[in-house]
Design a protein that fits this description.
The chain contains 9 helices and 7 strands. It has 271 residues and is of the alpha/beta class. Helix 1 (16-27) crosses helix 7 (218-230). It comes from Lentzea miocenica.
């Protein structure tokens, strides 16, 4: 089966930002394939076809992309949304826990990109939209490993975009701020907690919960994803929500010493 519509593949589409993005892309005229680690448990979404996918498995990634190509004949947009949150001081997590964050957030993006990119090059066109974060370009104490994973996604995306433009493919970044989803509630807690960091960790968890509760609706991020997928002249970065845009401006214009002081103040750390 092939389609006359453009085709979008959205990872982690069963909830949160991925769900909102999948529905928004349906509204924008795409045939949308959403992925979940167990597609049989995903709630039906109008216009979205679900397939099983675990982004940490080479075999699962190859099988899912193969299914999409067999059924639809093309992939025009890949939204790398699947991700895994982690909090706590950097010293409090084991190497195994840190590696899991990177395996999902970074190597999951790379696996999906390697599987889809040859098809996009062959059809001389496509967009790979990687979901980064406001945490992808600023420091966040007590979220160091997660921040590092999003910094890695930023560097990978910007570098790869230069490699593939001549083949009609763009690699773009969507940068949400705090978003009102269950992402924070599902984030991993440190598996080797230390009492020396406990007070600051608890304060961070409280601030984060409040920020997520007051955060943007996932539809705000979905709108940025659709823009990245459809803009005739795409931008490398799509800040999602007003806060991300403001922080980008501050990072560019505010002297580094003042920015550092503000980060410490916001995170209730001694000067």
């Amino acid at each position: 089966m092939t389609t006359n519509k453009p085709v979008a593949l959205v990872t982690g589409a069963s909830s949160g930002i991925g769900k909102a993005a999948a529905l928004a892309l349906v509204g924008a005229g795409y045939d949308v394939i959403g992925t979940s680690r167990d597609a049989s448990k995903a709630a039906p979404l109008g216009g979205v076809t679900f397939v099983d996918l675990d982004v940490v498995s080479d075999e699962s990634v190859d099988a899912a992309v193969g299914q999409v190509m067999e059924r639809f004949g093309r992939i025009d947009v890949l939204v790398n949304n699947a991700g895994f949150g982690a909090g706590g001081a950097a010293e409090e997590s084991s190497m195994a826990q840190d590696q899991r964050v990177f395996d999902i957030n970074v190597f999951g993006v790379i696996r999906m990109t390697k599987a889809v990119l040859p098809h996009m090059r062959a059809q001389r066109g496509g967009r790979i939209v990687n979901i980064s974060s406001i945490v992808g370009f600023i420091p966040v104490p007590y979220m160091a490993v997660y921040a590092a994973s999003k910094h890695a996604v930023e560097g990978y995306s910007e570098s790869l975009d230069h490699e593939v433009r001549e083949y009609g493919v763009r690699v773009l970044l969507v940068e949400p701020s705090w978003t009102n989803t269950s992402f924070e509630a599902n984030a991993a807690q440190p598996d080797q907690p230390l009492e020396v960091y406990a007070q600051h960790r608890r304060a961070f968890d409280k601030r984060m919960a409040a920020a997520v509760k007051a955060g943007d609706d996932p539809a705000v991020v979905a709108k940025a994803i659709v823009a990245a997928a459809t803009d005739a002249k795409p931008k490398l970065r799509y800040p999602a929500g007003a806060q991300t845009g403001r922080v980008h401006t501050m990072r560019r214009l505010v002297p580094s010493r003042m920015f550092d002081q503000q980060i410490r103040k916001l995170n209730e750390l001694p000067a």
